[in-house]
Design a protein that fits this description.
alpha/beta, Rossmann fold, 7-stranded mixed sheet, 6 helices
Length: about 220
């Protein structure tokens, strides 16, 4: 039933695709640098994907789960703490990019404005960016701050795919209601990719699927 609705959940990858993606992420993954200005970006000589999400949506946990490293991306309990664009190398041909958390930023307004400007410039001007993954907390659905980042991605003509996080925290009886709310929200955005990914970093749900998606973006 779910697969026939708009913005269905991505089906699990075939075994060979899943294994190839597992091998990619089990290989060399390293923190490259934190960027605070556009001139600090590494050369756009390889495909990259970025992860965007509200503060405390579970972005660091998801990146750690994808790479199988417990502390590759540093999680913070302080919303808005990460104010850099953090670059990670995935093998020799890809970058994983962790964008600053948005919403509820515990930071002075000038700092917030500076990193919002950096985010806009990055999204608008990064030719090697293949896809943005917008993380939505499955317990709460799409919030106003999520709408803002999706509008920015629309304006920047960057394809984004919604990744629902913390799926293990939502009871089955509540999940369809949240999915309906998310589907209705993202249907308004022309840059939205037509499938969603449901994940749990804690339980490992959806991790292999998301790895396969990233591995397939050249």
């Amino acid at each position: 039933m779910t697969q026939q609705l708009p913005f269905p959940l991505v089906e699990e990858p075939e075994a060979d695709v899943r294994e190839a993606a597992r091998i990619l992420f089990a290989g060399e993954v390293e923190f490259l640098k934190g960027v605070v200005a556009m001139d600090g970006l590494p050369p756009d000589d390889r495909a990259e994907v970025c992860f965007a999400g509200r503060s405390n949506v579970g972005k660091s946990s998801l990146i750690n789960a994808l790479t199988g490293r417990k502390a590759l991306a540093r999680a913070s309990n302080t919303p808005g703490r990460t104010q850099e664009i953090n670059y990670f190398t995935l093998g020799a041909e890809r970058y994983l990019v962790d964008l600053p958390g948005y919403g509820f930023a515990n930071a002075p307004l000038p700092v917030v404005e500076k990193w919002q400007a950096l985010l806009k410039n990055y999204l608008a001007g990064r030719a090697s960016l293949r896809r943005a993954f917008v993380l939505i907390d499955f317990r709460h659905g799409v919030k106003a701050a999520d709408e803002e980042i999706m509008k920015l991605l629309d304006r920047s003509a960057v394809t984004f795919q919604v990744v629902l996080t913390k799926a293990d925290k939502v009871k089955d009886k509540d999940s369809e209601k949240v999915l309906a709310q998310v589907r209705a929200a993202i249907a308004k955005h022309p840059a939205a990719y037509p499938e969603m990914v449901l994940t749990s970093s804690e339980k490992g749900d959806g991790i292999a699927t998301l790895r396969a998606i990233i591995a397939g973006l050249d």
